[in-house]
Structures are given as structure tokens and as C-alpha cells.
Amino acid sequence: MRFTLRQLQIFVAVAQQESVSRAAVLLSLSQSAASTSITELERQSSCQLFDRAGKRLSLNATGRQLLPQAVALLDQAKEIEDLLNGKSGFGSLAVGATLTIGNYLATLLIGSFMQRHPESQVKLHVQNTANIVQQVAHYEIDLGLIEGDCSHPDIEVQTWVEDELVVFCAPRHPLAKKGRASLEELTREAWILREQGSGTRLTFDQAMRHHLNSLNVRLELEHTEAIKRAVESGLGIGCISRLALRDAFRRGSLVAVETPELDLVRQFYFIWHKQKYQTSAIREFLDLCRSFTAGVNRSDEIVLPSIA
């Protein structure tokens, strides 16, 4: 049996999109060309790779076995192509990061990576933990940097650096003068929190699990900067990563409220698919991330790279 890399590329796109038409648009092909490629691949291999339900295609057992091997082969082929084009094996890299990491760490780390490897092409997807996990599981991105737990059976999880959430308020809020609050006091406040599905909200809910029913959640927002602005304006108190607040704390525009009764410590993690081929770009980027957190106890102590 003979098959081409282009056939595998189309197969992977159809598997990820679950649609020939969407895969064709993604690859700038006609729908008939994409459909013919899948039909020919199945004919050559003498087996079906998809279950068909109307226009929707989903991988069957054989297709699910083929997908990680096809993705790995395409990644290796891209490395060979880059090497032969004088790019030292560093080609494209797709990184997913949750909001705290994406906004306050990943962009600068990617900038440093691209300074070292100017020929590389990096795409950064910033979403919440649940979405990043799904993208890694479906081979849509190479690597995830997340701030929430991941228990997906197909995903490798490695600890990166410790992070801590902190309750905070506006300088004129009564808790600012006290500098600390009991659980009873916290349940009387109006809260501005991250949305469900985010790693930050998961950590907060776990810490407050015995008091969630008595909390007054006034606003749920998807962006940490929006939460900071809402708290500054006096709409309530919040709880996000110290990393996202260190500049505001230095300026005095927001004030930390110590909460001895709450465990708000969590981890940042690297995640990737267990069957994902580790390209040199992935390995190099992981090494770079680890180098910037070596000897650091907590995320807000990281000295970020300067990008000229």
C-alpha cells in the first residue's frame, strides 16, 4: 500500500474537524478533492476509517489508532523539511495557555523563544483550562500550559511551578485597612470571579467548597483585567493569581487580603498528548519555560525575560 503525506494531512484535518467541508476550507482544497483523498486512502488500506452520520464524520476504532501515528509522521516530515531548508529543525509550534499564564507569562516566553529561533512560527491560543485540555486531546495544539487540574487519560501532565490565588479589594474597601478576613467575613462580601471551567475558578471553588451556597457572586468575567477593573471600581472583591496582581499591588491600586483559613495554592502544569511526537521545537520550548522558573518558589517571583 502506498499513501502520501497529503492524504494523511487531509485525514488528520477531517478527523479534527469531523467534516470534509470544514477540512477542505482549512486546507484550501475543494470539497470534492478532500472527499476523494479520504475515499482513496480507505480504498488503499482496505478499511474504513470513519463512521458516517449524514455530513458528520467521526473516527472509528481503526481511525482512532491511525490519528496519533499520522500526526507524528506529519510532525517528523515537517522537521525534515525545515532542516533541509536550513531552519535547524525549528518549524511551527502551537501552544495553548490559560488566561493567567497566557497574559502574564506565555507571551514573553514565546517572544524569548522566537528571539533564539527567529525562523520559527509560533501560534498562541489563550483559553480556559477545559478548552486547552480538549485541544490537546484532539491534537489541535502541540502543548498546553494550564492552571487547573487535568485527568484526561490520553494526556501527559507535568508540574511546572507553584502559583497562589489571593483575595483582593480596592484600597477604600473596609477589608483593605484590616488586611485579612475570616471565612465568615468573606461570605458577607460581593464577589467578582472568573467563569466556570477556568482553572482559577476551580481552585477558588475547591477552597470555598463548604461555603459556596452562601456566597454572593455578583459578576462572573472571563478576563482577569476585567475583574481587576471591576474590583477597583468598588463592585466587590475578587480572587485571582498573585502573578496577575503584582503590578497592581506595587502601585497600590489594589490591596491583598490575607485569608489564613483558605488554601489557595495550586500548580501550573505542562500538558501534551501521550502519543504526540515531541519535535525539537516542543522540547526546546519546554526547556526554556523550565529555565525561567528554576529556583523559583512561586509564579509571582519569576523574573520575566525582556524582549528587545
From TrEMBL:
GO MF annotation terms = DNA-binding transcription factor activity; transcription cis-regulatory region binding
Under Pfam families, the record lists:
HTH_1, LysR_substrate
Domain HTH lysR-type intervals: 3-60
InterPro entries to which the protein is assigned, alphabetical: LysR_HTH_N, LysR_subst-bd, WH-like_DNA-bd_sf, WH_DNA-bd_sf
Keyword terms of this UniProt record: DNA-binding, Transcription, Transcription regulation
Return the similarity comment: Belongs to the LysR transcriptional regulatory family.
What name appears for this protein in its UniProt entry?
A: LysR family transcriptional regulator
Tell me what organism the protein belongs to.
Answer: Pseudomonas lutea
